[in-house]
Amino acid sequence: MSTNPFMVAVELHFPQLLQQVRELTRHNGDAPSSTIKFLVCVPQSLSLLTGMVTIADVATHVLVADATVGMYQTLDGRRVAIVGSSIVTKEGFDGVPARSVRIVMTDTFAHASIGPPDSYQCLLLHINRPFVGGVAVPEDMGEMDCATFRRYLAMIRAYPESAAVFSSLDVFVHDVFEPTTSASKKRPQHYLTPRRLRHVWTKCVDLLDDTGTLDTPLLAPTHVQHRHLQLAQAVESYLMEQVHDVVFAAVVFRCRKQDDAVRHTWRLLEHATPRDFNIAREFQCEQRQAIDLIANTHVECHSPLAMLMQLKRALTALNDAISRHLVRHRTNTPRDASIAQYLSTDDVLDQLLFVLVQVSKQCPAFPLAAIVTYIQEYHFVNSSVSALGFALANFQVALEWFTSHSDDDVPPPRPVVVEPVPPLAAVTTSLATAATCTTLRVMGSAPFAGQIIRDTVRNISCGPRWFAIVSDAGDVSTWGDASGGRLGVTLLTTTRLDVPTAIPQLQHVVQVSCGGWHVLACDLNGHVYSWGSNVNGQLGLECPNVSMVPTPTLVEDLVGTYISAVASGDGHSLALTSSGQVYSWGSNRFDQLGRDLQQGWTFQVGRVDHDWGGRNLRFERRCGTACSDMVDQVAPGAAMRIAAGSFHSAVITRDGALFMWGCGHSGQLGLGSFMDASVPTQVLQLAHDEVSVAHVGCGAKYSCVLLASGHALIAGQLVDHDRVVLSSTWFVKVPTPDDVDDAAFASHFVSISCGPAHCAFVNVRGNVLMWGTNAQGQILPQDGTVDVVHPPRWLASRVAHVTCGESHTMLAIVE
To answer: What is the pTM of this model?
Structure first.
């Protein structure tokens, strides 16, 4: 039987509460009862002003998922939002500002009234105070961070009657480390056993209690226990900080065999993905803050409590990261809103197991067993029923999981390495270069479908309903939909150009890249020009309040840096320097800029601070190469090619490695998971020394790569509306039909292009393989019979270049 009066009321009135949940979910038109989950929030008993809790009080704390992701209704018609590890009151609650209460821990709840056919699921959320009334209390009465500890200690020592107690502690520590007589020359460990230190701590706390330290007639009786625990914690921290170095080193030495076993298991799991730990797709997200906090626990913390609080902060960061991830990817559709997305205790443990494996990569000698043992033995204040105790319990279970699994017990991660593939036989092609192409064919929706344009081109690009080409002389011409200034020319009487029109401001251009609503171009002088939409700062201009720039404008932040290539995403931009550095700007909603930014977008051009040196599976510098030059394995790595998808980015390095970052919600990063990546992350699936990436292309929810061997791979989701053509979190080979002449060279590809939902691959014979949506006729003539081209089809021949836009495809064909 619970001693918390609120929990007693929950158990007493649960049948009536369950009936109200049934009525509310039925009124909302939710899914069948077997899928309905609801939450009961239980405030800490110390936060309650009275022991009398009514059913109305409980109803205010029973939550059912609302129509908006992250929002919940109470049984009495109010609303709250769950944000990370906090619950914020919304409509129906009095008080400004809104009350934010902290989730201390979660637990499942079983009751006899929950059963077939009503298969409801109830989760308890223990919170640090009620939504209405009550008082604010600490999440854990034994918690005391370093700053609070030092202030509290100064207050205690200010009492004259406390001086003798702390003097005795100082003498004890002095005798341990600097013995003055032969009789006292004993090993420090003899004095520093848990039993001996607990005895010293208990005696000092009792003496301080007896002297009435911090007693006051104004102290509420309900908080006397709280004061006692803080007093006890201050003494523990004072004592353990002074002996920490010796004690913790001894514990590390004592736990070395157990830690060796843990590290062995970590090595077995170093290539494991969140799926290998049964982490649900919606909860797969990057956990950099939690990883950093855990990895630095034994470096930054110098007492058991400090370490325990660091581990608790890591779990809080883990929960907050998942909450941000859910908000970032929410769609607010009825289907999403019907699913209550919250972490159970098992979900937290699964996340923690995966995070600890990542910690081992950052800190290979991380002493997990020693840290857990140190806290268990030398944290004297009882935290077993608190948030700190919940944190410690998770790490204890994780430690047991890693130590109890042998080589045979640990399921091997699914294969992540593409085995070395021999390069296809070298061939010579009779195709002319792109500069001699004289026919451009446009496929897609009207009015540009079937358009044939004769011009000599060096480079082509295609955006949503508009096109750009670079002539052999370096001139840029555009045509198509002129909305948002995308064509780079001023139009007074029309919103569309049906034929290529030169942009007079641009000369000696070598490349043009069309994004969602903006365009980038770079010239022989290494300068970058941008025009079109600027709502996300994607033009990189010092005019953040200007939403559109209709004519090419020099990106002055890049002047002085020679830019050799540019790439445009849906709302972000990339630039590659001749020295192999990468710059980014624009939208950063999914961290596609690869920079440490707090805001969701920036117009300021900045360098992606990363070492572009690829690693093999042994985490050694790669010896492969994506170019003909030899790669210096000692010199810093350099980027060689860039690509931008709708919300993700890619780089190929000079040593043939592939780095991806940004949105990974559809598996488009090829990292074996659905996680986003805020920093460039190497695709270790392609890290074998004999596997070298030569080209990369990015679509909306997928990515394609071309290996130096000529093989094409694809990862992510190739989707046409609700139909999924391909779904893989790993790179898999693009299927190639055999209905083509000279089949031996059919799959030896030389270039690729990715639109939002369709892609094209050109082989050495100039045949083009196309795959994906045909909703606008961008692959085959749109006659209503073929909305999706699947599997891929060989369609055109003698193609030198291809570019895929949202609703069109443009081919450069050799005559």
So the answer is: 0.82
